[in-house]
Amino acid sequence: MSAATIRVLIVDDETSARRRVHDLLSTERDVEVVGESCNGLQACADIERLAPDIVFLDVEMPERDGLQVVADVGLERMPVTIFVTAHDRYAAAAFDADVMDYLLKPFDGERFARSLAKARTWLEAERQAERLARLQSTLEGLARAPAAPDRILVRVGESQQFVRTADILFVEAEGNYVKLHTTDGLFQIRERMVGIIERLDPALFRRIHRSHIVNLNHVRKLLPWFGGDRLVIMNDGSRLTLSRTFKGALESPPTPSAS
């Protein structure tokens, strides 16, 4: 094995996510994937045993999350770390911190390549002190990430931008995607309804139909409708259906959001 070979450990509890990173690394001739860890506890042991140069570290995992992995291993013994997450609240925290780098699932090959290129620069010995300071800053930012984010990261063409959750009027299901109808226009992200509802503040957002989630602050009125359903009129004039399955969604008091 060449002395210039970069040793990489992939840490994620999802098999498909680990395979995605592995496949993208397979085209890098100077990179060797030395191991894959499926939970935080295994990751701690593998980092100590395999001594990788770079670790792709999922933030939310069983046994120990990504932050606990860093705490258990110790800042000074951690490899160059690229955090990977499917949750915008962590992406927003990483964006606000002077983060080393992070990947928001699902990511494309171009975004991955930029992240790997940045990681290569952090391998330089003279950047060790700066790397540790950046990692500490990132940990502090991720630890402060709110349970329900006030922003969601969306792709717009070749770029990404944040959409304030308060500006979302309603969410519409479309296959493996959801459409965010906002005060600033329409955005589409790759997510299922069960996933997006977990990322929205229950004090503001309620599911009223298998295809729709509404922001209570943007509901204008309710009208009787056919078959026991009700018609939901939104502030922008959109007309949605409150189905019998979710009939209590707009009647029960909001759940207080975590402070």
Describe this structure in words.
With 259 residues, the protein is an alpha/beta fold. The protein is 29% helix and 32% strand. It has seven helices and 15 strands. The strands form four sheets. The chain has a five-stranded parallel β-sheet with strand order 2-1-3-4-5, with helices on both faces. Strands 10-9-8-12-11 form a five-stranded antiparallel β-sheet. The protein has a three-stranded antiparallel β-sheet with strand order 13-14-15, with no helix packed on it. α2 packs parallel to α3 (66-73) and α4 crosses α6 (128-143). It is elongated. The protein starts with 5 loop residues before the first strand and ends in a 17-residue tail after the last strand. The relative contact order is 0.09. The model is unreliable at 253-259 (pLDDT under 50).
